[in-house]
Amino acid sequence: MLVYENVDLQPHNSFGVSANARYFSAVNSFEELRRAFQFAKEKRIPTYVLGEGSNVLFSRDFPGLIIKMALTGVEIDQASGVVRAAAGENWHALVSSCIGESLYGLENLALIPGSVGAAPVQNIGAYGIEIASVIKHVEGLDTRTGERFILDAKGCCFDYRDSIFKKAQGAHFVISEVTLQLHQDWMPDLSYLSRDKEFTETLVETPEQLFSLVCRVRRRKLPDPRLVGNAGSFFKNPFVSAECLEELKTRYRDLVWFDTNDPGVKKLPAAWLLDKLGWKGQKHGGAEVSSMHALVLINTASATGEEISVLADRMVASVFDEFGIVLEPEVRIL
Ligand code: FAD
Ligand code: EPU
Known about the structure:
The chain is α+β, with helices and mostly antiparallel strands. The protein has helices spanning 30-43, 91-100, 197-200, 207-221, 242-251, 270-276, 305-323, and strands spanning 4-8, 20-27, 47-50, 56-57, 62-69, 74-77, 82-86, 125-126, 129-130, 135-142, 147-152, 173-181, 229-233, 239-241, 258-259, 265-267, 283-284, 287-289, 296-299, 332-333. It is 24% helix and 26% strand. A hairpin with a 4-residue loop joins strand 10 (135-142) and strand 11.
């Protein structure tokens, strides 16, 4: 296991912001993962686990050890539909491989940036599907004991952009492998996508066509992090009570909202709230609200993490002042 000192994290986060890591190590095996935590314990420094950095904002230097998950390996068992992938594998590549092996269930989650190991952390979701629906189990290192843990989907406590791994009771779990249960039969979920104008103009009769459609819709709606630094949706979509929704509807006739499984709870698109307040194109230093999507903050050139964070705080304050709703960041801010 190699440990580097004073590493610039700029190539390791999709915002492309600079921040210094006191120590940095890319771990290739479970044993190296264990040793990395041992190293930090001996030095009495904090640790932070990093995948591909597409959902993090480094707002300042990190005084401890960044542990970059670089474990690789994929096993696909076509007959049973069970797929096991190591944490450092790329998520989109895995989606593509599974479709190539005629195993289905991941098509709607195509082109989500990041690693396999981070996918259960916020229960990645898009176009009506969440990874929770295909998780068989998640394995890794329990950093309290130094032993392996294994959790099934129920144990992961998945929710909208949430899981046990984001909570205090699961913060000591580091995911090294994810096992999925996919399907030989294709049972597409087109409900969310059918709202998109591109859907009505496209033939979607095969999993490959669905995969391509999802990629096209995403490329149209979201800036490409390889070209413009961003972390996708900066905030989660808020939930409000049905009464609150009725009150908002009287004030905003064009309000957009979505039903949830609970008739008393409605979901609002944070992008709509921000767009309504004219946030698209607003700037602070090198940080800007994307003109493609009001929920996406971009690094126009050389933004600092602090500038992005200040802009985000101003957006939260303005949504609260106008709508009385508190936006919560989806992006993990360090
Ligand atoms: P990182 O950013 O490296 O880490 C994210 C968090 O997970 C951190 O808290 C980190 O400590 C933790 N973590 C990482 N790996 C592990 C591990 N092995 N064990 C334990 N904890 C770990 N997300 C969606 O859900 N849906 C979308 O549609 C979507 N679209 C996006 C579009 C764009 C353009 C971008 C840039 C991002 C988008 N995201 C989306 C967010 C992002 O893709 C996901 O959150 C993804 O899972 C992050 O993976 P990562 O490897 O980059 O994680
Ligand atoms: N809208 C605006 N202005 C905009 C963009 C959108 O008013 O600039 C409104 C439109 O009315 C639109 C609605 O917001 O109908 C929803 O927009 P969109 O379909 O783009 O979805 P979203 O709610 O903004 C969520 C996820 C995305 C995911 C898509 C597709 C969250 C926080 N975001 O975005 O996930 O890809 O749905 O399922 O839940 C991410 O997590 O990083 C991410 C990109």
